[in-house]
Design goal:
Blueprint: E1 2-4, E2 21-24, E3 27-33, E4 36-37, E5 40-41, H1 47-64, E6 72-79, H2 85-93, E7 102-107, E8 118-125
Parallel strand pairs: 6-7
Antiparallel strand pairs: 1-2, 2-3, 3-8, 4-5, 6-8
Length: 143
């Protein structure tokens, strides 16, 4: 069963467009989030503030799904300029510690609004962080 997850902290799109978060089993799929609220860009020209806004929205959705940020296992980060990378990574450190999620950071030519600098989507496995993380080394194939 797929369940649509909503949060009173995150504005939902108009019906028929997309879902911000869907829970399928224990996997939460979070759509690309941007720093847009009340028809205005939050943190205009500030990739750190935009990233903080996005990660806070993500946290709200993950918690509404019954999880915590440590359950996030994958991030895809889109920036309009690679010079925003340090600010985005600094914001990420405010929400994650220990074993960070797998992550991809890509520069794109534009986002949905010209003042948006960052967009992030995520996958979380609800409850995954409740145990110890195991680190396993798989031996390389011998030549």
């Amino acid at each position: 069963m797929v369940v649509r997850i909503v949060s009173d902290q995150v504005v939902e799109p108009a019906p028929g467009l997309w879902s911000n978060c869907l829970l399928a089993g224990k996997q939460a799929f979070i759509s690309g989030l941007v720093a847009f609220e009340n028809d205005q860009v939050v943190g205009r020209n500030d990739p750190y503030r935009q990233s903080i806004f996005i990660f806070a929205a993500m946290k709200s959705l993950v918690e509404s799904a019954g999880g915590q940020m440590a359950d996030v296992v994958n991030l895809n980060i889109f920036v309009t300029d690679m010079k925003h990378r340090p600010a985005v990574l600094e914001a990420r450190r405010q929400f994650f510690s220990g074993n960070f999620p797998c992550s991809t950071l890509v520069s794109v030519s534009a986002l949905i609004h010209p003042e948006l600098l960052v967009e992030i989507n995520a996958i979380a496995v609800i409850g995954a962080s409740s145990g110890e993380m195991e680190v396993a080394a798989v031996p390389r194939a011998q030549k």
